[in-house]
Design goal:
The protein is of the alpha+beta class. It has two domains: 165 residues, 3-Layer(bba) Sandwich (FAD/NAD(P)-binding domain), CATH 3.50.50.60; 164 residues, D-Amino Acid Oxidase, Chain A, domain 2 (2-Layer Sandwich). It is built from eight helices and 19 strands. α1 packs across α8. The longest helix has 18 residues. It is globular.
Length: 395
């Protein structure tokens, strides 16, 4: 992006564009290091138009997506505890987690791979073991499961509020309802042109969620937004799904079964995050949407995204619908995060493409981005998340 405007601009060390999960964490981390930070959000702070709402987000260590994420997760857990202490807010809830599916499914085989590679505490359950321990789940006889004790959930609204409060208390300037229209960058500085004025900085960090395509399109990389459904129901047997009786969970359904759509279904104990009801959602790329024109209001047909799976796999939870909400994924081409410097502008830092599984990493991603902006490098192993994996980028 490039732009022209007035010649005078407010000056900062680092400007962060987007103050959702990743941007708010980066703002808090940089401000607490004494860096002069400006954070810009195009909507109201804590809005529900992106990927960081819905009252619960899963966190787990046996990461079936890829074992390379585990070192980042170890640090993420540490930082969540530190953020809780600094903000006096309860953010992280440990419930244990169980991941079910055919033995060769990603949810089971991938979790085992990560657990073995990093010597993580876990337990394998066959179908009989699963039925005895967690009778809530009605999975096919050929399914198995992995249980890990450290899994749980984060409360996204509380997380973002805590990070923003810490950033502001440490001196960060936060502006909401302000849109970034364009920017110019060279090796010495970055100039941003917004709906309210101009700003100049040594560094800029783009954590713009589903709007990230604007930043990476000129690199020949598509980060596409999709519409994702979340539902809350009132269980027929609520005692089976209360926190303490029910862990966070995922059921991998690689192929469609009758009217159950293919995908990975997941959920949380009832009332997780303070919202009444039992939450269920399907982790699979939903219909493509334009984030600027997206209608994020649920419609009656959205219930079909999760209701058949609820009937099939969790029949005792198959009660009346309480609420449905819509969020967005920002999908990278391979489903893995993009965290790197712009190949032509070392002072432009990009963090996007979190593809529906990034929220749990917000604490450590904030630290990584602060490292890159303040120190020029990070000790964290993020090479596998770099732009180079996409091959030769467009000039």
């Amino acid at each position: 992006m490039s732009g022209q405007g007035k010649t005078r601009a407010d000056r900062f060390h680092t400007i962060i564009v987007g103050l959702g999960a990743m941007g708010s964490a980066a703002a808090a981390n940089l401000a607490r290091r004494g860096v002069r930070v400006l954070g810009i959000e195009q909507f109201a702070l804590g809005h529900a138009r992106g990927s960081s709402h819905g009252h619960s987000r899963m966190i787990r260590m046996c990461y079936y997506e890829h074992p390379d994420y585990v070192p980042l997760l170890r640090r993420a857990y540490e930082l969540w505890r530190e953020t809780e202490a600094a903000s006096s807010a309860k953010l992280l809830h440990i419930t244990g987690g169980v991941y079910m599916g055919p033995p060769d499914s990603l949810a089971v085989s991938g979790a085992i791979r990560a657990a073995v590679a990093h010597h993580l505490d876990h337990e394998l359950l066959d179908r009989g073991d699963l039925a005895k321990r967690y009778p809530q789940f009605n999975v096919p006889d050929d399914h198995s499961a992995l249980f890990e004790p450290v899994a749980g959930y984060l409360v996204p609204e509380a997380v973002i509020a805590a990070h923003l409060s810490l950033a502001r208390a440490a001196g960060a300037t936060l502006r909401d309802n302000e849109r970034v229209d364009s920017y110019d960058a060279d090796g010495a500085r970055v100039r941003l042109y917004t709906s309210a004025g101009e700003y100049e900085a040594d560094r800029v960090i783009f954590t713009s969620g589903a709007w990230a395509t604007r930043v990476v399109t000129d690199l020949g990389i598509e980060v596409a937004a999709s519409r994702q459904v979340m539902g809350w129901v009132r269980p027929e047997k609520p005692e089976m799904f209360a926190e303490g009786a029910c862990p966070v969970w995922a059921i991998d359904c690689p192929l469609a079964l009758a009217d159950v759509r293919a995908g990975l279904y997941y959920g949380f104990p009832a009332d997780a995050g303070g919202t009444p009801g039992f939450k269920i959602a399907r982790h699979a790329v939903g219909p493509p949407i334009n984030p600027d024109r997206a209608d994020l209001n649920p419609v009656p047909s959205d219930e079909a995204d999760f209701r058949p799976a609820l009937r099939a796999f969790l029949p005792d939870a198959d009660g009346p619908l309480i609420a449905a909400r819509i969020c967005m994924y920002e999908n990278s081409p391979d489903g893995h995060f993009i965290i790197d410097r712009h190949p032509r502008h070392a002072n432009v830092i990009i963090a996007c493409g979190f593809s529906g599984h990034g929220f749990k990493f917000a604490s450590v991603v904030g630290e990584v981005l602060a490292d890159l902006a303040a120190d020029g490098a990070t000790r964290h192993p993020i090479g596998f998340l770099g732009l180079a994996r996409f091959g030769r980028l467009q000039a």
